[in-house]
Amino acid sequence: MLTTLDSSTPEGLRPVLQPLPTLTSAGTRLLEAAGELFYNRGVRAVGVDLIAETAGTTKKTLYDRFGSKDALVALYLLDRAHQWRSFLLERIELPASARSPEHSVLAVFDALETWMGGQLRGCAFVNAYAELGEGDHPAVPVIRAEKAWMRALFDDLTGDSAVGAHVHLIYEGTLVVLTAGGDASGMVEARRAVRIALASNG
Amino acid sequence: MLTTLDSSTPEGLRPVLQPLPTLTSAGTRLLEAAGELFYNRGVRAVGVDLIAETAGTTKKTLYDRFGSKDALVALYLLDRAHQWRSFLLERIELPASARSPEHSVLAVFDALETWMGGQLRGCAFVNAYAELGEGDHPAVPVIRAEKAWMRALFDDLTGDSAVGAHVHLIYEGTLVVLTAGGDASGMVEARRAVRIALASNG
DNA sequence: CTGCGAGTATACCGACCGGTGTGGTTACCT
DNA sequence: AGGTAACCACACCGGTCGGTATACTCGCAG
């Protein structure tokens, strides 16, 4: 049952991301600039000077609003998680009738394809995780939460934890194969694999 | 048929990685130091000064041997691909008799678990790809070759391209879920998913 | 004996890193 | 009128970045 996608409880039992703090206008510009730069070039490759300049403001304002580059990185990922979640949910919840697990899960992969739009930069969360090294970074909980949310979503959509796990593995693998692997046929193979995973439901 | 794992043609038709160049003693130390530092802390987070110091030599020698940091990064990945491939193959090829696709494929996941040894730093190739940004980096072909090699391996082991693709997606997803996702149960779910994927073979 | 490849030691380069400090200008709230 | 939060301009900090230059020592092959 798709209990968590009922119109009355659109978020259901899935873990909810912490909300985004209210931002000033310069803060918004900074977060938007950081978002594009961090994603396209990598977190460590982008300096705070460039972010401030791109946003049409100053480093001073950046540090007044966000406190540190690390905090800005964490907020960038939190913001992106919110964007992806709303993008995804409105593509899953629309056909409120005749909603099968296969239809819903494949809609997630359709949404992913649209979201990526041919880009090859991969998953922002996996990429950020790769750059953070061994220590504990404020962005790590955001990354973990995003992955846990996707897993819980697939559990809900399939109604089965084992099938949800299987589909989630395919989902994460698809992102890697499409981007780092450079294999453009990955999405076709993913959809075929998803149908097999769903057919295994007991 | 496991044509490419016959004892007479251990590499078979799978694409072969370019060989590692011969290294001097200081060069070997540099590559080993770079390997550990790059993997554990990230490529961009490690400077050439630290690598030279860790290897007990100088930056001068590093640049005499490798020419640039980018070239050293590419060689680090090529070296790691060779290590992983030999580690993996000796764990797959050993029981030359009674070799089923299920046994072989699950042996890959066993090898992966052993290779990772509880570490949470993820796939070196995916991590490096995440750090390279948009441009063309000498490491990209090495990354692509490694992913293509794993895919071809699964095609061979399963004897079916669709099943191989499915298992490869699960494999890449497992690495992400275990590390960035921080989900320790990912390996158990992966093995279950693999059995389902293999059972779909026509 | 000579030449050469390999390695060591150290100094240097301009650019950039994340982060701070000062001072001044708006605009809104009480 | 006074306070304050937000913002901008700009200068500054110590440290590190990738990469280069100079000069010296060693072992070895011709």
TrEMBL record, chains A, B:
InterPro entries recorded: Homeodomain-like_sf, HTH-type_TetR-like_transc_reg, HTH_TetR, Tet_transcr_reg_TetR-rel_C_sf
GO MF annotations in UniProt: DNA-binding transcription factor activity; transcription cis-regulatory region binding
Positions of the DNA-binding region: 47-66
The HTH tetR-type domain, residue ranges: 24-84
Short name of any one Pfam family annotated for the protein: TetR_N
Source taxon at top rank: Bacteria
Keyword Ligase: no
Keyword terms: DNA-binding
Provenance organism: Kineosporia babensis
Protein name in UniProt: TetR/AcrR family transcriptional regulator
